[in-house]
Amino acid sequence: MTQSFLAISFLFSFTFINAQSFEKAFVVYTSKGKKTTVNNMLNDSKKADCILFGEFHDNPITHWLQLETAKFLSGSNSLCLGFEMFESDQQQLVDDYLSGKLTDKQFSDSCRLWPNYETDYKPLIELAKQKGIPCIASNVKRKYASLLFKKGRAALDTLPESEKNKFASLDFELDSTLSQYREVRKMGGHGMGIGMMEAQAFKDATMAMHIQKYLSLNFQVLHFNGAFHSDYYQGILWYLMQNTSFLVKKKLTISTVSQDDITKLDKEHFGKADYIICVSETMTKTH
Fold it and tell me: Which pLDDT does position 188 carry in this prediction?
């Protein structure tokens, strides 16, 4: 009888422990590792001129929260959505789709869409289309970033002005002491590190340039980018803050991290952003 009771007690205990572990798929933390709420994140987003929402490109929790943030802010007439996932030469295609000049198929056939567009970015584009929200194709054209990586900035100097106007000035500053760029250089190794760092900075500077255009027109910009492009208040935000003629007054950064145990934020993630979405490592991926 005692053995049966112990067995049943163990079974209920095991079931309870497992049920507890599935209660949450994510937890939102502040920069200092304090637990907070999605509502706090949304309310602070409403007060910001520029929100850089750093994602893991294949994380469904991040994409869901991006959509919810966009919906929450969509009541404002000044909202603008920005996308790393669209390159600046695609701006006219994005505009034409939002205005109804292109069908869904025409847009899909004409644009270089990311493989997870349908599940992760299309809902944002459709929201923008429905609400009349402008969208920024903020990234540099991939082949230009690749050319700079392989041959340096001078390789782009012969391009026509109509193309140069779509990316950051080729004399853009690069602070190689920033931790994110040091990490990129390390990933590239001895042979490719400098080129990778230059290309990363080129993308960041270009995205900042396009965001700034809309900020100067008094839009509130909600920009979606890989977390690496804005973590530790570097990357895109660093370039935005270098323009002394136009400083971003109220800015907010959001990042994404994954952990085995999401009940406490690992110290290595402290300071990554104003809000840090900590997602379980076992979370499924969108692609």
Answer: 74
Q: What is the pLDDT of residue 18?
A: 46
Rounded to an integer, what distance in angstroms lies between the CA atom of residue 211 and that of residue 238?
A: 13
Q: Torsions phi, psi of 226, nearest 5?
A: -55, 140
Note the residue count of the chain.
287
- Distance (Å, whole) CA 205 – CA 168: 6
Q: What is the CATH number of domain 27-280?
A: 3.40.50.11550
3-state secondary structure 146-213: HHHHHHCHHHHCCCCHHHHCCCCCCCCCCCCCCHHHHHHHHHHHHHHHHHHHHHHHHHHHHHHHHHHH
DSSP 141: P
Burial of 189 (0-12, 13-18, 19+ CB in 10 A): exposed
Instruction: Look at residue 191 in the predicted model and tell me its pLDDT.
Output: 65
Residue 215 · residue 49 · CB < 8 Å: yes
CA distance 222 to 124: 11
The domains of the chain are located at 27-280
Give 10-residue mean pLDDT values along the chain (287 residues). 46 44 84 98 97 95 98 94 98 98 97 95 98 98 96 96 97 95 85 90 98 95 98 97 78 98 97 98 88
